[in-house]
Specification:
14 helices, about 75% helix
Length: about 325
């Protein structure tokens, strides 16, 4: 065997230089690993002694100086835990991002950790309803910052379960940031691209609910918002008839339709009171067409409407 090596290097002097370089690189890597391990162990000891800030310095050194070391991944996990403990959520998220992008063996766990961290910041949990409304003040962060965290999470794995869920929560966060059009577009994309996902009906409902809330804000002043809310709520009910959000959607739709009925009735009676029966008849006919079971009590019932009206509850 020795003779074979001598013969090989005698005919390939360039390979000898490469071999020497590989040995040197291996020695350097081994030395780096040893240094990284010592720093990591010292950091763990400091944690046990109740000195997380001091430990963080050691782990940061490992993560910055010894990126090729296998200990780097372990140090990044400790950086994440300490930063989260200290309330430095962005730094904790960045540590997870390095694990995702630089440490293949840690991808899945770190990617899930990114979404979990984002959900904690908006007060989310599996037992809570899928909305941002219940976030406690201590958990609130700038929606723009949170949206960027979720975008990074999506970019790291757009078709993974973690990335798919991040799409949904990014849409919620965009609404919270006042970007309603972007939020609706993202919810619609989610319902279209992931129709079998457990969050698909939630995404579709959010589209309708945003329109409903817009109408509530402009109530009495914007028939356009009212009509948009009615259309979106009806669309959701038709597309996801078995959704657990169905009852809430039907309740919202009933409120919208009741408001429309009251408005048509008010306008019709206004014109009737002023003696303008032609204009009143237009609105009474709309009432008859849209609410055939409503009881219309009025001074003079136009003949064109009389035969269409029946006494009964609003549908």
């Amino acid at each position: 065997m020795r003779c074979l090596f001598k013969s090989f290097f005698a005919h390939s002097p360039g390979h000898l230089g490469l071999f020497v370089l590989l040995l040197a690189a291996s020695a350097v890597t081994a030395a780096e690993d040893e240094n990284a391990i010592r720093l990591y162990q010292r950091g763990m000891k400091l944690i046990s002694e109740g000195e997380p800030e001091e430990a963080l310095e050691r782990f940061n050194t490992v993560a910055s100086k010894y990126r090729r070391s296998e200990t780097c991944g372990l140090a990044l996990w400790e950086i994440y835990r300490i930063q989260e403990h200290l309330g430095q959520d962005l730094a904790a998220f960045e540590a997870l991002n390095r694990l995702v992008t630089e440490q293949p063996g840690h991808f899945s766990k770190a990617h899930e950790g990114q979404l979990r961290l984002a959900l904690r910041l908006i007060g989310r949990g599996k037992e809570e309803c899928r909305t941002l409304e219940s976030a406690r003040p201590s958990q609130q962060v700038d929606p723009e910052v949170l949206a960027e965290m979720l975008r990074v999470t999506i970019k790291n794995g757009p078709q993974s379960e973690t990335g798919i869920q991040a799409h949904y929560y990014l849409a919620l966060t965009l609404e919270k940031a006042g970007k309603k059009k972007e939020a609706i577009a993202m919810h619609e994309d989610f319902a279209e691209n992931f129709p079998k996902h457990e969050l698909a009906d939630d995404a579709a409902y959010q589209c309708a609910y945003i329109a409903y809330k817009d109408w509530k804000t402009m109530r009495g002043d914007s028939p356009h918002q009212r009509e948009a809310a009615a259309v979106m709520l009806a669309w959701f009910i038709a597309r996801f008839p078995e959704s657990d959000k169905g009852a809430q959607a039907r309740s919202c739709l009933g409120e919208v339709r009741l408001a429309e009925r009251h408005e048509l009735m008010s306008i019709a009676r206004y014109y009737e009171g002023r003696g303008n029966m032609k204009a009143a008849d237009v609105y009474y006919q709309q009432l008859a067409a849209k609410f055939p079971d409503v009881n219309v009590a009025k001074k003079t019932l136009p003949s064109s409407v009389e035969s269409q009206q029946q006494i009964g509850p609003v549908r």
